[in-house]
Amino acid sequence: xxxxxxxxxxxxxxxxxxxxxxxxxxxxxxxxxxxxxxxxxxxxxxxxxxxxxxxxxxxxxxxxxxxxxxxxxxxxxxxxxxxxxxxxxxxxxxxxxxxxxxxxxxxxxxxxxxxxxxxxxxxxxxxxxxxxxxxxxxxxxxxxxxxxxxxxxxxxxxxxxxxxxxxxxxxxxxxxxxxxxxxxxxxxxxxxxxxxxxxxxxxxxxxxxxxxxxxxxxxxxxxxxxxxxxxxxxxxxxxxxxxxxxxxxxxxxxxxxxx
Length: 259
Hints:
Layout: H1 5-8, H2 11-19, E1 27-30, E2 35-38, E3 43-44, H3 50-58, H4 62-70, E4 101-105, E5 113-114, H5 117-128, H6 132-137, E6 143-147, E7 157-159, H7 179-195, H8 215-220, H9 222-225, H10 231-238, H11 243-248, E8 253-254, E9 257-258
Antiparallel strand pairs: 1-2, 2-3, 4-5, 4-6, 6-7, 8-9
């Protein structure tokens, strides 16, 4: 989503963003669970690891990382991986985490949970003196579905098997539609305003100038279109087409040359 935004954002837009108090809206605090969720990664991130996560996984520049992290200074979010407490067994699956994984839980205590059958057999042998053959005979009693806050600290909890109608989502989650749908909607709105005469018809320069005072950018009116838009949408709109895509486009012959 935002893995290469420095490379693909025009200089004028990048300079404008640095002057605005913009943060990454896809990093969300779930107050009911006291966890910070990175929605593109579908994982919980402890506050002390948020800077590293944004830097290594999303290549977010320092200034934007500081602004994003500052949002969570006063919230009771999990500080470390040890603070990511498993939810209660039997909870509904959380839709903003990876789908529940088939796993195993110990029917004799609440400690033994794993997606590895061998680990469960070792657990019941050590804790409950139950042989591996007995486990195999009663394997159906161990079968379950598990979720975890993060793969880096797999503290599992058992979720309900019927997750078709009971999945819990982040309240007020910002990304209910895809980037492509957002961009298509923006294009439709721009076309409507142009037809309504809402935008002045300024002849755009053939050159791609990056001074915000040039005719080209005034004609685009990008500050108007991107006002109050989330950072990931600005990034997507500013991204350059790939070389492969441009090779597939043919504009026909011009002055004897194939364009």
